[in-house]
Each structure stands twice: as structure tokens, then as C-alpha cells.
């Protein structure tokens, strides 16, 4: 078989497995071949099941099939191919460590065992019957893996007896600490307005509540990680959860001030870190007139200058 014949065959398999038209393309075919480590010259019966990340998939396609993809297409591979493979039960996400953070650079995929067994029969007289059997069971498989993913999500209590779940990872653990620990200490009785999620961004969002406070948000990408309404003082606490990116620095402070400029509540800017060691990396970037909270020393709040301690400032 030529390289193109392998790619065409992989596309036919994707069609047979019932994936949408948007995944019936060369990019997805090469991703499937990479998941199987099926380089030219191998038989389908020799398909393997390595753990492989997005960049290694792209590198593999270049090395074995001469297909070059620009580095900025990583998100296309992830969002327009691998997400759908996982949703369809064809691939598993982080099977070696299911609680790995959604945006971890160590994230890996692996062909699902039943899909691997099926694909190894491609081109033989067993294929048709195996495909029929596989498709009859696929919804059960999809439900099974969806349930396993759900079990690894992080529960967060947003009010007594009320809980949401966030994607697994260090970032979400810090968001939980902000909502459950920081808020209870420094803004008791506050109401959660927004909590971001690395998985789907909108972990929780009470848009009507935010609108009632004078803020209408068009682009959730600019939202802070957590927004709390401290009703007793009518403050909006805008909290950034810092595990890998920067704190509320001067630029971010200006962005948030613009985004929440219509707020009827006073604005308080907070940066939260999981530990003092991580905080130390960013001390030189933190904006003045903001607060810093560290999860491993929860009873302390660090105030960066100004005339108030944990309070809003009026723009002059």
C-alpha cells in the first residue's frame, strides 16, 4: 500500500465508525494512524496502542507520511479531531493518569481497546461482522468512558448543599480552594457569580446576577477565574487563579477594570496562588492596589500598598 492508500483507508474507517463529516478528513486519518502507530509497510493487524500527545501526533505524521502541519494547528488537532475521537469512544484521554489537568502539556491519548481490536481486522473477511458487533456496543462504551471522566472531575461546593464539578487538575483545585476557603474567610456569605473551567471555560456562570450588577460580558475569554459578589459590602471580588500563567499585573488589572467598568458594586482584584513558592516567581509582576492570597497559608492575606485593606478603589 502507498502512503495515500493508508490515509484513504483510515478515512474509510472513520466514516464506518460514524464520525461526523468534519472529522472525515486527512488530518483525522493521520491522527488515527498515529494512534495505531501504523507506519507505511505495516499490516492493519500490526496496529499498536501507544500513548501519544498532540505534538507527537503531528511529528509522527511528518516523519512517516511527509505531512507537515504548522505548530499553530495543534488546537485544530485537539479540538477538531481528538475531542471527537474521545467523545465517540474511539480514543481514551489520559488513560495512564485520568486526573491529569485538562491543559497539561503531558496530556496523552490512546486508541480504545475495543476499537483497536476492530481495526486490526480491517481488510480481512472478519471486518464486516466485527464492525457490526462494535457499533452495536459503542453507545455503551461511550457512556462508560463518559462516566469514568465524570468520576475524575473535582467537586466544588458553591452553596450549602449545592455543588458543581470542574475538570481535573491543579488549576481547578485552586479554584475550589478560592470558593470554599478564601471566600468563607474574607467574604463570608458571598455568592458565586462565575467560576472558569479549563475544560469548557464556563464551569459556572450566573449571567443574570452579573447583569443585575451592571456588567454584561461578551467575551468569556477575558473573565477572571472566579467572580464572587460579597453582598454584605456590595463588592465584586475578581480572582485570578495562578498555577501556570501570570497574576493580576498592570495589564490584566486594566483589562478587568474595562470589562467590569459598568459595575454597580465595588471592584476588588485578587490573585490566588497554590503556594508561596509559586507566588515568589511572580512578585515583581503583581499590580499595586490588589490583594494576594496563598492557599497553603489560607489565614493570611497580602495587600499590595494603597490606603485600604481588601476593598475597592475608585478611579480618579
What key phrases describe this protein's structure?
alpha+beta; Arc Repressor Mutant, subunit A; Trna Endonuclease, Chain: A, domain 1; two-stranded antiparallel sheet; 10 helices; 11 strands; 18% strand; elongated
Describe the 3D structure.
The protein is an alpha+beta fold and 316 residues long. It folds into two domains: 3-151, Arc Repressor Mutant, subunit A, CATH 1.10.10; 154-303, Trna Endonuclease, Chain: A, domain 1 (3-Layer(aba) Sandwich), CATH 3.40.1350.80. It is 39% helix and 18% strand. Helix 9 (250-259) links the parallel strand 8 and strand 9 (266-273). Helix 1 (3-16) packs across helix 2, helix 2 (26-36) crosses helix 3 (54-65) and helix 5 packs antiparallel against helix 6 (127-151). The model has no long low-confidence stretch (mean pLDDT 86).
The CATH superfamily of the largest domain bears the name BsuBI/PstI restriction endonuclease, C-terminal domain
What is the CATH level 1 assignment of the largest domain? Alpha Beta
**Major beta-sheet overview:** 7 strands, mixed
Number of domains as seen in the coordinates:
2
CATH fold annotation of the largest domain: Trna Endonuclease, Chain: A, domain 1
Task: Put the structure in a nutshell.
The protein is an alpha+beta fold. Helix content is 39%, strand content 18%. The chain is elongated and about 75 Å long.
Amino acid at each position: 500500500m502507498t502512503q495515500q492508500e493508508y490515509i484513504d483507508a483510515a478515512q474509510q474507517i472513520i466514516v464506518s465508525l460514524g464520525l461526523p463529516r468534519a472529522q472525515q478528513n486527512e488530518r483525522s486519518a493521520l491522527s488515527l494512524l498515529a494512534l495505531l502507530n501504523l507506519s507505511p509497510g505495516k499490516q492493519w493487524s500490526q496496529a499498536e496502542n501507544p500513548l501519544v500527545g498532540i505534538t507527537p501526533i503531528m511529528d509522527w505524521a511528518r516523519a512517516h507520511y511527509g505531512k507537515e502541519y504548522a505548530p499553530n494547528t495543534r488546537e485544530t488537532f485537539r479540538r477538531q479531531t481528538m475531542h471527537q475521537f474521545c467523545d465517540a469512544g474511539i480514543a481514551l484521554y489520559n488513560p495512564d493518569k485520568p486526573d491529569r489537568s485538562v491543559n497539561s502539556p503531558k496530556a496523552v491519548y490512546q486508541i480504545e481497546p475495543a476499537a483497536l481490536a476492530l481495526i486490526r481486522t480491517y481488510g480481512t473477511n472478519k471486518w464486516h461482522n466485527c464492525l457490526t458487533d462494535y457499533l452495536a456496543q459503542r453507545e455503551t462504551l461511550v457512556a462508560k468512558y463518559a462516566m469514568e471522566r465524570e468520576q475524575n472531575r473535582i467537586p466544588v461546593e458553591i452553596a450549602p448543599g449545592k455543588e458543581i464539578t470542574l475538570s481535573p487538575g491543579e488549576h481547578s483545585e485552586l479554584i475550589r480552594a478560592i470558593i470554599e476557603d478564601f471566600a468563607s474567610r474574607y467574604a463570608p456569605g458571598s455568592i458565586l457569580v462565575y467560576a472558569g473551567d479549563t475544560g469548557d471555560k464556563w464551569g459556572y456562570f450566573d449571567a443574570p446576577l452579573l447583569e443585575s450588577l451592571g456588567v454584561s460580558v461578551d467575551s468569556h475569554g477575558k473573565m477572571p477565574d472566579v467572580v464572587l459578589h460579597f453582598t454584605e459590602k456590595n463588592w465584586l471580588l475578581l480572582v485570578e487563579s495562578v498555577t501556570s500563567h501570570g497574576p493580576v499585573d498592570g495589564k490584566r488589572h486594566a483589562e478587568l477594570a474595562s470589562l467590569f467598568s459598568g459595575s454597580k458594586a465595588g471592584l476588588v482584584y485578587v490573585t490566588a496562588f497554590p503556594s508561596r513558592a509559586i507566588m515568589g516567581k511572580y512578585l515583581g509582576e503583581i499590580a499595586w492596589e490588589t490583594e494576594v492570597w496563598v492557599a497553603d497559608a489560607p489565614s493570611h492575606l497580602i495587600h499590595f500598598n494603597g490606603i485600604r485593606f481588601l476593598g475597592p478603589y475608585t478611579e480618579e
